[in-house]
Amino acid sequence: MACLRESDLQGYLEESGATPLRRMVESHLVSCARCRTAFDRVVATHQRVNAWLSELASPADELAVDVRGALSRVLGRVEAHANADYHLARLLAPAAVEIPWYVSLYCNVRELIREDLLGKDKLPPLALTSKPIAVKSIWGLYAKNPKSRYISVAVHAAVFALLMVTFTNKAVQQKLSERLNLIDPNIEPYKPPAPKQAAGGGGGGAREIPPVTKGQAPKPALKQFTPPMVVKEPPKLAMAPTIVAPPDTVLPQNSLPNWGDPLAKLVNGSNGPGFGGGMGNGSGGALGSGRGAGFGPGDGGGIGGGVYRAGGGVSQPAVIFKVDPEYSEEARKAKYSGTVMLAVIVDAEGRARDIHVVKSLGMGLDEKAIEAVAKWKFKPGMKGGQAVNVRATIEVNFRLL
Fold first, then answer.
1. Is the distance from CB of 298 to CB of 201 less than 8 angstroms?
2. pTM more than 0.70
């Protein structure tokens, strides 16, 4: 595009608003450095002419116009402005900033090729001509001040004296010398609760020679109206037989259609050699080998596996390992002696359980007797060649030598 004429630049300064001439001049000045230089000269001339005209006096005020004086004042201000360092000139961007992007890209690529690939016009390495200047260190400002040492020693001495006075106080010394006795709770390892032993039992029979027949056990109930039996003639008003046991008692069962002992071996239709009604080899009008309205060995109802007493085919438990009881401190000081009677159940494993005091001595001797008997080992009572639970009474003697 051709450069602008001087008349175009003059018209740009004389016109105002967004005229076609002003838009054309502004768009051209952005990309043309030569026209910007010419425009700067036109603007400077225009400003000086306007300033000169403003210095001329009006003919109505004075008879003669001082043209030379006005021109000399304008030129003096121009020269002063040329030498002055205006802060506004610093805000104006130089002409090189407004170079088009494609021109700048072309120049950068050309310089890269010339310097890196062709090795031409390569700048020499930068040489540092500045020298470091020694400055005063900000650390150790008090190294040569003796007052800081004295102050530090005084502070440490005061803290040490305060600690000595505090910890040498009688009240503090008494607290430090107190002895705290910790009591060992002697917590034993957790042991799961032993399964609840079966209690009670019952039995029956009709004095028949064959053993009791194998069959289905009756349902447990709190009251018994009809015992289980094998009858020759069916009754006119039939009622389901029951045994006396808690309703939630679990009995061994089978799928046989007749009543009988589910633990028997043969189905022979016999009520067993027992007596008192029911079925089995016991007594009591129920089912099993015990005495009562329950089921199984034992007495008093419920399910068998209950506690026996010595006699009637049940042997007495015997002690095979014994631990002597210890004296309590209270009984030793009072020189107290006597006998503690305990009621125990010796189980099939030869251990004493459910220990209860029948005859007490007091003064801590009852507890010592229970601790000792709990460590004893017994030969269990036998019934029919099998170990059973037997109730026994044990006397523990306390004598001072």
1. yes
2. no
